[in-house]
Amino acid sequence: MRKEKLYINGQWQEAASGETFDVLNPADGSLVGKMASAGREEVLQAITAAEQALEEWASLPAQVRANYMKKWHQLLLEKAEKIARTLTMEQGKPLAEALGEVKAAAAFVEWYAEEGKRVYGETIPASSSRKRILVLKQPVGITAAITPWNFPASMVTRKISPAIAAGCPVILKPAEQTPFCAVEIIQLAHEAGIPKGVISLLTGPPEVIGDTLLEDPRIRKVTFTGSTAVGKKLMKKSADTVKQVSLELGGHAPYLVFEDADLDKAVKELIGSKIRNCGQICIATNRLYVQESVEKELVQKLKTAFSGIKMGSGFEEDIQMGPLIDEKAYQKVQEHVEDALSKGATIVTGGEGFHRGEHEKAGYYYKPTILVDVTADMNIMKEETFGPVVPIQRFQSEEEALRLANDSHYGLASYVFTESLSRGLRVSEKLEYGIVGLNDGGPATVQAPFGGIKESGLGREGGHFGIESFLEIKYLSIGIE
């Protein structure tokens, strides 16, 4: 059993209270280890350390910051398999998926090491020959980064990397369910020589840590990935000190399959979109809309594909889908299925789960499930399920498909499958989502902007867009003789 500490001002330390919390393996509920639980005192220590580091770190040439990050990137690649095993142990996803995520985490560090060197200003023509106008971009300041449990490696570096590349010290608060791979990632940042105070890691009660960070005026930026409900609370609490806020929140992705689609491709891409990480992905397909003339064929192909999915612990051979993160997640999936059945839906395959181990809070699995005869009044068609369930609703026309797809408070990701270029572009432009996968079920990548509209969030992460929210614009007007 491992026991890990907090990382503040370049040092690993216990919580002053001595308190810890348990981290469970979602595959069977076994105890992975104990993690130090920070209180208000440690949060203030981390903020002070970041404040002391800010001026020097922000003043460094971008190339120097990049050199630190390149060392960090190299260490992440060297230790990728070790971090992946930790990730699978505390999060549950298959080891191959975990390794892919760690490599993606390393890619964010590499990308922003380079992107930080391309933060350009502007010279603007003045209205007078006796003036010059310059526009500078400078770091926004100390940043609080709050990351989720479903991608506990890549979300850490997707937030920290652009921030420190821009010159902003970061205080990281990873999810309580998955702190250990964050610990290993930050340990490698330490070994890369990133100066003390530039990165801190705090774990513990979200309310205590979050409220302390949000109340302190020295924190100038909050970047958060998680539920829409929590994101709204962060926005409200950030208003008192007018912090800049980036939010990547919940999704309810529609997956539109038209009658001219390549159905085999649509099914293959859907498997990746829905089964990966047991459906616990913010851009996972939540609602499948299929044109009436091809519904039966698509359902049969999907049923065949789902029946071959191998479930189990992420360390088992050839596993394609691991457990749900905990009992609460399992209950939500079960409630959505039961609600749909009570309102007339029919199960094609799946519709049940099982439990492993002796711990009541973890060890929960749910079989890949297909529901048909689905209607818009079912909860599963309105709320994010975060599990391996595909509800299918038919449509007749393009206009109907768009109406159904856009009928949501969420606007993160959406998918369109058609072999018609004209239809694909037409529908993609009308979908009210920040991300559209056109014949592509896996659109997320380091070089592209990731984020949503409506109640799915504010701002973008990834690509050159991702560093912009960590920069302030300063206008310099110069009078000359």
Overview of this protein structure:
The protein is α/β, with parallel strands linked by helices and 481 residues long. The protein has two domains: 2-249 and 457-478, Aldehyde Dehydrogenase, Chain A, domain 1; 253-445, Aldehyde Dehydrogenase, Chain A, domain 2, CATH 3.40.309. Helix content is 38%, strand content 23%. The protein contains 14 helices and 25 strands. The strands form seven sheets. Strands 15-18-19-14-13-21-22 form a seven-stranded mixed β-sheet, sandwiched between helices. A six-stranded mixed β-sheet has the order 10-9-8-11-12-24, with helices on both faces. Strands 1-5-4 form a three-stranded mixed β-sheet, with no helix packed on it. Helix 1 (40-59) crosses helix 7 (206-215), helix 3 crosses helix 4 (95-115) and helix 3 runs antiparallel to helix 6. The mean pLDDT is 97.
Low-confidence stretches: none
How large is the share of residues in beta strands?
A: 15-25%
Look up the CATH topology of the largest domain: Aldehyde Dehydrogenase, Chain A, domain 1
According to CATH, the homologous superfamily of the largest domain is: Aldehyde Dehydrogenase, Chain A, domain 1
What best-fitting shape do the alpha-carbon axes yield?
Answer: globular
Major sheet strand order: 15-18-19-14-13-21-22
Q: How many separate domains make up the residues?
A: 2
Q: What percent of the residues sit in helical stretches (DSSP H or I)? A: 25-40%
CATH class of the largest domain: Alpha Beta
- Compute the average pLDDT: 97
Instruction: Quickly give the CATH architecture of the largest domain.
Output: 3-Layer(aba) Sandwich
Quantity of strands, as a count:
25
| Content-based structural category | alpha/beta
Summarize the main sheet: 7 strands, mixed
Spatial separation of the terminal alpha carbons: 71 Å
Specify Rg, calculated over alpha carbons.
23 Å
Enumerate how many helices there are, as a single number.
14
